[in-house]
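Researcher: Here's the sequence for the chain we discussed earlier.
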Amino acid sequence: MTNLRFTDANGLKFAYFEEGTGPLVLLVHGFPDTAHSWAPIRQSLANAGFRVVSPFTRGYFPTEIPSDGKYDSETLGRDLLALIEALGETSAVVVGHDWGAIGAFAATQMDPTKVHFLAVVALPHSASIRTLPRIAWGLRHIVRFKFFGGAGWLTANDFANVDALVRRWSPAWTFGPDETTAIKEALRQPGCTDAVLGYYRAVSPMLTEVLKRKIEVPTLAFVGETDSVMTRADFEHARKYHAASYDIVAMPGGHFLHREDPQLFVKHLLAALPAPRATSGQAASVR
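Model: Thanks. This is the structure I predict for it:
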């Protein structure tokens, strides 16, 4: 991690990778994932004229573990808003996958002036997610992680269940052992597995008023044609929660579209992004 940088935001020290100059794009990972997974996307966007930052989200080594144990959706959103400011910018494009999408939605709902374009991968607007048997079955891991010894299950057999989850969520993806090396190494660090499961302990069926708000910025939503949890119909159902333009891209693949076909992912993303213009602020110094 020789190119790793650090900055303080929302009371935590965040680690992140950065490439390029231009308007800021935040690439926010989900689970089971790290900032490493955005490497080909980060490079392609940097080559296209953007300043691209992919942070390790709270609790994911080497970002600091929060002492207050807060991992709720609004806190994840505040992290992203604070990172935009800490990086010396007034607004950004935010691209979020999985938990990163949840944080990206929350950030946009709390302050749409700081997120001028939103892209989400694999999850639609939180208020749109229905209690259908198909979706409940697809999200059954939440119950395990929240209530039933998720740490033991996740760490068993040298984190073999990390691979099992990736195969479950992207059943058509044939991936090599290196694909999950980074997240397994992160989870081996002291306190990291418990921190990662903190996201699931914070899950509540009752959304706050903030999380029910419509999205007021242009949004691009990616859905995998073989995703085992969310379908295009679920993203279409979310359309009523978007007050600005809302485009859906269905790609071959499952839950990890940015990893399964980075070139096609970037092609769709660049086609939708506002053209690079002058940066909105000076880059913050890093420590």
